[in-house]
Design goal:
The chain has 22 helices and 22 strands. Helices cover 38% and strands 20% of the residues. β21, α22 and β22 form a beta-alpha-beta unit.
Length: 626
């Protein structure tokens, strides 16, 4: 029976007898397991904090299946499953991975990610708690092990899977869903198994900086995961742009060739990957939300460690009578959720409740009372944290982490204060007529967009043509109606449903729009359509005679009466390519001023330019009458 397609003497087991007798079966199985022990090795690939580059853990990746004659690792496991050897093979491989992991000098600060074949859960030779004895031999805490359950096999019909995974959880192992988004029943797995981590499949990560649909998918999953208190790992990251985009979306950790390739050499592994940290340091872009007061609102609540005796838990509530919950962390400081006082009331206030829960034979530990709680990174911008809070129900607030370690808590009261301050700041900057963001928000957006180097952006400056004569002839009320019309058309034709960007009102008849990571030609077409629609719709604001003539007579700035064409709008479109560095938004770039002049003199009312690297400063607020 061949283990693979290679038929050489060294790499095949074709000489093994067919499994026709118990003795033959045992011989085949023993030889298979022996070859696993001799020929299989593990490579390790780091999983790092996406902002700081600090190592969170290492995934154990099997190497050497071709030495046993298998074309792939999957074929090896398929064979083990078919021969009812999957569990024995898995335990052998786990010990190899754990033993090698134990030799890492910084092993205790990291987690070992190990792939769990879902078919193992229905394997007839499955035996519980064998991994615990292996971990004890090497002095590794079970909380340092994270089993990855792949979504590529259907687990929906495995009757015992939930029971076994609950047993894994009871033994303090962590659980992750691998390949999330590409396989069977992804959201059902998320609901049923309540994982600690999910790993977004590389299909959604590859080229994400250029694909709005992938961005939308990943950001939605990230938001949902954070509400459920689940950390998100972006796997398969191969470029700087992919890492930065995943970081900006809100992913917590990263894995892939851009960080480091898998290696069988332990000496090549690091506890921190500086090039990841450097990207964050180099990225001077500030959060677009204002105010940025989140750190001031963070309260440090002394957490409980998940291994604490229940007596300690009761004492914590007794000594802090005003406290209705406590954060719960693992020994490495990573938050697991919160424990609420109300969850313990049946034991606190019943005659024998405390004695019962103190009895270890009863089997209840602090982990059994932990409730998931939303989690956010301390460096996350205020708007993102508020979004996580808004989506969560019946929660006391948000656990705040730095490098995946608990650093404090944002309470509901603090959140409401942040929301109020944010609303006040928005209202102060909002244009009173159009309700669009004003100059402060526009400047913040431009500083943000032009400082970043990893992606392109397109900035558009709109200025009405012949607005002053119209305003003089028809009055300020009609002038305001014209401004509102343009704002409405901007929302309709350039709204967020069509692009990832920003709309603003500089003041008077000057407007601003920005487009992130969009094709410049596509943006130009959108702007051209907007100008044409405005020119057509604004004509109805004139009297029939003016419409028929195509002009009105009014006084110019020199006090002389002359004819002015019907109102329109000009647009200066400036494309800032990826890799272009910027300055502050305080100075008006000569190029933009020239573009505006060019647009005014062009029959289309539109002028376009692509900014050369190292030359862009900004577009300052402008205005005036045209």
């Amino acid at each position: 029976m061949s283990f693979g397609k290679d038929d050489t003497a060294a790499n095949r087991i074709g000489s093994l007898p067919l499994v026709t007798t118990p003795t033959g079966a045992e011989s085949t199985g023993a030889r298979f397991l022996s070859f696993l022990q001799e020929r299989i090795d593990y490579a390790y690939q780091p999983i790092v904090n996406i902002r700081t580059g600090s190592c969170y853990g290492f995934e154990a990746l099997l190497r050497g299946s071709e030495k046993m004659g298998f074309p792939s690792i999957q074929h090896l496991f398929d064979h083990a499953y078919q021969e009812n050897l999957l569990h024995k093979a898995d335990i052998l491989l786990r010990e190899k991975a754990i033993e090698k992991f134990s030799r890492l000098p910084f092993m205790r600060e990291n987690k070992l990610f190990f792939n769990l074949d879902p078919r193992l859960l229905e394997s007839p030779d499955y035996q519980p708690k064998q991994t615990l004895s292996v971990l004890e031999r090497y002095g590794i805490d079970p909380r340092s092990i994270c089993f990855e359950l792949t979504e590529r096999h259907d687990t929906s019909n495995i009757a015992d899977s939930m029971r076994i995974l609950k047993a894994y959880r009871a033994q303090s192992y962590r659980l992750a869903i691998d390949d999330f988004g590409t396989g069977f029943s992804g959201l059902k797995l998320l609901y049923d198994y309540q994982p600690d981590n999910i790993k977004i499949d590389r299909f959604f990560i590859t080229g994400i900086e250029r694909d709005p649909k992938k961005k939308l998918f990943v950001s939605t999953i990230v938001d949902l995961a954070h509400v459920l208190g689940i950390m998100v790992i972006a796997e398969g990251i191969e470029t700087e742009a992919e890492l930065i985009t995943c970081r900006d979306i809100g992913c917590d950790m990263a894995q892939g060739y851009f960080i480091a390739r898998p290696t069988t050499e332990l000496t090549a592994l690091q506890s921190r990957y500086e090039h990841v940290a450097q990207l964050t340091l180099n990225d001077r872009r500030k959060a677009r939300s204002t105010p940025r007061d989140t750190p001031q609102e963070i309260e440090f609540i002394q957490p409980l460690v998940v291994g604490a005796d229940m007596i300690e838990v009761f004492e914590a509530f007794r000594k802090n009578k005003d406290r209705t919950f406590f954060p719960v962390i693992d020994p490495q400081g990573e938050p697991l959720g919160i424990v609420r006082e109300e969850a313990l009331k049946d034991y606190i206030y019943s005659p024998y409740g405390r004695d019962l829960i103190h009895n270890r034979a009863y089997g209840k530990t602090l982990r059994d009372f932990v409730t998931p709680c939303p989690v956010a990174e301390a460096s996350e911008d205020t708007t993102k944290i508020l979004e996580i809070f808004a989506m969560a129900e019946n929660n006391e607030g948000i656990l705040i982490v730095a490098d995946q370690r608990y650093v404090g808590f944002l309470s509901t009261t603090s959140m409401l204060r942040l929301i109020n301050e944010k609303n006040i700041a928005v209202a102060r900057d909002q244009n009173p007529l159009t309700k669009l963001p004003g100059n402060n928000s526009i400047h913040a957006y431009i500083a943000d967009a032009l400082t970043g180097t990893e992606r392109a952006c397109t900035l558009v400056y709109f200025d009405f043509d012949n607005f002053k004569p119209f305003n003089d002839a028809y009055g300020f009320r009609q002038g305001d109606r014209a401004i509102l019309l343009f704002a409405e058309l901007m929302h309709k034709q350039l709204g967020r449903s069509r692009f990832d960007g920003f709309l603003g009102h500089i003041g008077g008849d000057d407007f601003f729009a920005a487009f992130d990571d969009r094709d410049a030609e596509e943006v130009t077409e959108w702007v051209r359509d907007l100008l044409a629609t405005f020119r057509q719709d604004i004509a109805s604001f004139y009297d029939p005679e003016a419409r028929e003539q195509g002009y009105i007579e009014a006084t110019d700035r020199q006090g002389e009466k002359r004819r002015f064409p019907l109102m329109g709008c000009s647009a200066a479109v400036l494309h800032v390519p990826a890799g272009t560095r910027g300055d502050t938004p305080d100075a008006v770039l000569d190029q933009v001023a020239k573009l505006k002049k060019q647009a005014k003199s062009d029959p289309s009312g539109l002028a376009f330019a692509s900014a050369p690297p190292q030359k862009i400063c900004a577009i300052a607020s402008g205005g005036g009458q045209s």
